[in-house]
């Protein structure tokens, strides 16, 4: 259970991080704010006076800026530096524009400099096609929908459709997992992540194309129309948009919400490491990768390698996630415990 006061301080610091990342393009500062916020969130006691933050090394220095901000929030409940940043028109615009899927901070700033200061400006009639890439136009179209969290039940329905599509390609069942935050047990997710196994690596692209065609409008399958737009179609990786064709509950009148979906196909040998990687969290991955590196291994989505060369010959044979933990002399961590 997060502690109320700590999360209030942390939320304001997270907003500073976001503004530094998306609008000011101060990447280093953004990381500092985010790190301080996450350290505060992980404390097991409520911070009431500034001396108590001494347990966080990066906040220990007396004249540190973030420490002073924390102090201000603790005593006044506000952060004036943040309040004035929020008022700046360029900051407001860049935060809004970089919320469009596919628009990074640099593009957001360019759009702002060209005079596009809001979503509404980009949605106005007569905006030239080449103002955004095709992917960014789709991001703009579904801006509000992509911002909504996806309930677990809906994630599961969309992933099931992908699994059913995959299983019409091969005679034997293929392994198909709904990964990301869903597999870590979260009640809702930001997108739908699906990992599909292909036993014959030479058929991986065929399998992915088969799945996509099965789910697109106009296919004869009962799942037709679930995929509504493509963002990026790679050989074995797909990023796109999905929407359920029927509401989850019969009495639900609202039209289906468009969701971000990622589908990835991996060969059997790489499947366990891909499963580990795409289950995350990204922080959990970072610490496990670092651990592997210290032991002389290279841990990637494509495999666990005995040395840094990542040559096929140095690939460690793993049949499941447990084998990866074993090889690295780690106790197995269940997906629900990887939410670090
Ligand atoms: N991943 C990673 N590093 C990245 C991006 C992704 O290690 N830079 C891995 C870990 C993630 C997984 O891929 O858990 C899926 O990426 P998502 O961005 O979909 O993140 P989650 O599914 O964890 O969260 P969300 O609910 O926001 O989708
Ligand atoms: Mg996800
Ligand atoms: Mn994803």
- Percentage of residues in strands: 5-15%
Instruction: Give the class from helix and strand content and strand pairing.
Output: alpha+beta
- SS field, number of helical segments: 15
Please write the CATH class name of the largest domain. Alpha Beta
In CATH, what is the homologous superfamily of the largest domain? Beta Polymerase, domain 2
- Termini Cα gap: 14 Å
Query: How is the biggest beta sheet arranged?
Result: 5 strands, mixed
Number of domains: 4
If strands are numbered along the chain, what order do they take across the biggest sheet? Answer: 2-4-7-6-5
Bound molecules: 2'-deoxycytidine-5'-triphosphate, magnesium ion, manganese (II) ion
Mean pLDDT: 95
- Say what the CATH topology of the largest domain is: Beta Polymerase, domain 2
Backbone shape: globular
Count of individual beta strands: 9
CATH architectural category of the largest domain? 2-Layer Sandwich
Return the string of H and E elements. Answer: HHHHHHHHHEHEHEEHEEEHHEEH
Radius of gyration, whole Å: 23 Å
Helix content: 40-55%
Unreliable spans are: none
Structure description:
The chain has four domains: 87 residues, Orthogonal Bundle (DNA polymerase, domain 1); 53 residues, DNA polymerase, domain 1 (Orthogonal Bundle), CATH 1.10.150; 122 residues, Beta Polymerase, domain 2 (2-Layer Sandwich); 57 residues, 2-Layer Sandwich (Beta Polymerase, domain 3), CATH 3.30.210. Strand 8 and strand 9 form a beta hairpin. It contains 15 helices and nine strands. The longest helix is centred in the first third of the chain and has 19 residues. It has a five-stranded mixed sheet with strand order 2-4-7-6-5, sandwiched between helices. Strands 1-3 form a two-stranded antiparallel ribbon. It starts with a helix and ends in a 13-residue tail after the last helix. It is α+β, with helices and mostly antiparallel strands and 340 residues long. The model has no long low-confidence stretch (mean pLDDT 95). It is globular, with a radius of gyration of 23 Å. The site of 2'-deoxycytidine-5'-triphosphate has 12 residues, from helix 11, helix 13 and helix 14. One of its GO terms (biological process) is double-strand break repair via nonhomologous end joining. It catalyses: DNA(n) + a 2'-deoxyribonucleoside 5'-triphosphate = DNA(n+1) + diphosphate. Keywords: DNA damage, DNA repair, DNA replication, DNA synthesis, DNA-directed DNA polymerase, Nucleotidyltransferase, Nucleus, Transferase. It comes from Ostreococcus lucimarinus (strain CCE9901). It holds the Pfam family DNA_pol_lambd_f.
